[in-house]
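Input.
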Amino acid sequence: MTAIAIVAIIGWVIVTIVESRKDKNKGMAKKDRAALEAEIATLKDRVATLEKIVTDDGYDLKKQFADLEKDKVA
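Output.
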């Protein structure tokens, strides 16, 4: 009878340890996910800014290259 109680207690301790590790891993995963989502949001903002610059009417890349070529020849 004592052996059964000891085995039950040991089993309960093992289950508790495994569950606490799962909870720690979930907490870390949530932190990692939050950090990644914040980084993605920052990158989206940067891409939007770059798109505005490139698609702006005053931004004419071909003209700038032509101007550089003229300066190079002269």
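The mean pLDDT is 80.
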